[in-house]
Amino acid sequence: MIDLRSDTVTKPSPGMRQAMLAAPVGDDVYAEDPTVIELEQRVAQLLGHEAGLFCVSGSMCNILGVRLLVEPGQEVVCDIQAHIARAEMGAHGAVSGLTMRTFPSSRGRLQLAEVAKIIAPSAGPYLVSTAAVAVENTHNFGGGTIQPIEELTAVGQLCRDHGIGYHLDGARLWNAHVATGVALEAYGRLFDTVSVCFSKGLGAPVGSVLVSTAENIARARVLRKRLGGGWRQAGVLAAACLYALDHHLQWLADDHVAARAFAEAVAACVPAAVEPDAVETNVVVIDTGAAPAAPIAVAAAERGARVSALGPHMIRAVTHLDVTAEDCEWAGQLVGKLLSG
Ligand SMILES: *Cc1c(COP(=O)(O)O)cnc(C)c1O
Predict the structure, then answer these.
(1) Of 6, 10, 57, 308, which is best to mutate to test ligand 1, by the most ligand atoms within 8 angstroms of its C-beta?
(2) Sign of dihedral through CA atoms 274, 277, 278, 279?
(3) Does 197 sit in the ligand 1 pocket, CB within 6 Å?
(4) H or E segment at 51?
(5) DSSP code of 165?
(6) Helices (H), the chain
């Protein structure tokens, strides 16, 4: 079975399991786990920030990162397809007590003009005040879209001009970095808070890191514990993340080639379903046209390839460490045939 539902389905490799076994550990609620501390420092440094906080999920890092910038009753602004808006179970409202407004985008691509149109900083006693803008790079539901560094910089300047925060959901920032060659630090420094995932393309079983100033991260530690997210000998998990940085980061370029192969195979059958040139990283979004997406995903699974039906007419395939480019090409042919027949 070729599983392209998500890049979260990877299993830890033997080398990664070995690293987990060998990790020195301590109680992380006491900030005494040396492997967790090493990971937090390394990621903070990579992203040009003072400090990091290792958490169980990307969602938790986004919840904490946004909450550091937005008080209850204020709003965060993001795009209509953002993971924080669509896929975090309403946590930002339900848990943090903040509201959200969204701007439109094509394939998740950030545009300064759309952000500028919608923000309402210090809106006074009548309207909700915008306290932060959140962006996603790469953009998941947009199809692995890379945000141009110029646009990210311009929106950052807008936020600074208006005294509001700037959060990056960088669950797949690694993919943007590998695809563009833009340094992780060059991305990271634009933002007040950044979250990155290790359980996506990097292939670790669990874990994300939030980075920011030392002061913000100290606050985030309290908020994390309040959510029940304090953990103890988490170094066994941090070791997998360190291993992924050392051994898996370099393979993301292969995932991008495999995604392109998948898209080309689909487009060879149904050109209108996907534009292979628009596939920038490891996510392929397919427009099923008039056909409903769910039965096609079911039929593909019966024939040996799993993909996600993420909307009534939208299929998503994500490439990762545990599939080859040949697997992906084959799966693309299969999905293409199902779409055309
Ligand atoms: C996966 C993902 C997250 C975090 O997801 P978790 O399952 O909570 O780790 C956040 N943002 C984006 C864009 C993602 O793709």
Answers:
(1) 57
(2) positive
(3) yes
(4) strand 51-55
(5) E
(6) 14-22, 34-46, 58-69, 83-86, 91-94, 112-118, 149-161, 173-180, 184-188, 214-226, 235-247, 252-269, 293-302, 325-340
The pair of structure tokens assigned to 209 is 């890191």
Q: Determine if ligand 1 sits within 6 Å of the CB of residue 58.
A: yes
Q: How many Å lie between the centroid of ligand 1 and the Cα of residue 325?
A: 24
Domains of the chain: 11-247 (3.40.640.10), 251-340 (3.90.1150.10)
Contact status, residue 324 vs residue 262, Cβ threshold 8 Å: no
What are the structure tokens assigned to 35, written together?
A: 């492997």
Nearest protein CA to atom 3 of ligand 1, as residue = 58
Contacts of 226 (CB under 8 A, 6+ apart): none
pTM of the model: 0.97
Which of the 8 DSSP states describes residue 163? T
Neighbours of 156 (CB within 10 A): 18
In this structure, which residue's CA is closest to atom 4 in ligand 1? 58
Other Cβ atoms closer than 10 A to 102:
17
Phi, psi of 75 (to 5 degrees): -125, 155
How close is the Cα of 275 to the center of ligand 1, in Å?
Answer: 25
Q: Identify the bridge partners of residue 52 per DSSP, sorted by sequence position.
A: 211
Residues 10-62: tens digit of each pLDDT: 999 999 999 999 999 999 999 999 999 999 999 999 999 999 999 999 999 99
pLDDT tens by residue, 277-292: 999 999 999 999 999 9
Q: In 3D, which of 251, 231, 239 has the Cα closest to residue 204?
A: 239
